[in-house]
Write a structure and sequence with these properties.
This protein has five helices and seven strands; from the N terminus they run βααβββββαβαα. The chain is of the alpha+beta class. Helix 1 crosses helix 2. It is elongated and about 60 Å long.
Length: 137
C-alpha cells in the first residue's frame, strides 16, 4: 500500500467517507466531481490532501454543511469517532435549522391545502424533492 509523503494529510474523498458524510467512497468521489464539495472556498479534486484546520463545505440535498477539519482518518469507524473528525460552524448549524424549518412549514402548508391523500405522482415528486433533485417538470 502506498503511503502519502506527509502522514498528517488525508485525501478528501477518504476523509469524507471516514467522517460519514457519504456511505461509500464512490459516492464521496461523485459528489466531489459534481462540485458539491469545496475546501477553503474553492472547488476541490478528490485527491486534494486535507490538513487539520481546513474548512470543508459539503452540500447534501437541500442542506449545506460547513465543517472545520479537527482530525484526520483514512479508516471509517463508529459514528461517535467520526463526529470527532470535524466541528460544524455555528453559521452552518443555523442555516441547516432554517432550511429544515422552511421545509417543514412548506410541508404543513401543502397538507393543509389538500384534503385528500397524495396521488402517486405527488408522492414521487415529494420523494424527488427530499432527495434533493428538485422538480423535473
Amino acid at each position: 500500500m502506498l503511503q502519502h509523503p506527509d502522514p498528517a494529510r488525508v485525501r478528501l474523498d477518504r476523509w469524507l467517507w471516514a467522517a460519514r458524510f457519504f456511505r461509500t467512497r464512490a459516492a464521496a468521489a461523485g459528489a466531489i466531481d459534481g462540485g458539491k464539495v469545496r475546501v477553503n472556498g474553492a472547488r476541490a479534486k478528490r485527491s486534494r490532501l486535507l490538513a487539520p484546520g481546513d474548512l470543508v463545505e459539503v452540500r447534501l440535498g437541500p442542506y449545506t454543511h460547513q465543517v472545520v477539519v479537527r482530525a484526520l482518518s483514512e479508516r471509517r469507524g463508529p459514528p461517535a469517532v467520526a463526529a470527532r473528525l470535524y466541528e460544524e460552524t455555528a453559521q452552518s448549524r443555523e442555516g441547516r435549522e432554517r432550511v429544515a424549518l422552511q421545509l417543514e412549514t412548506a410541508h404543513i402548508l401543502w397538507l393543509s391545502e389538500r384534503r385528500e391523500r397524495p396521488t402517486k405522482r405527488d408522492r414521487r415528486r415529494l420523494e424527488r424533492f427530499r432527495k434533493g433533485r428538485g422538480e423535473s417538470r
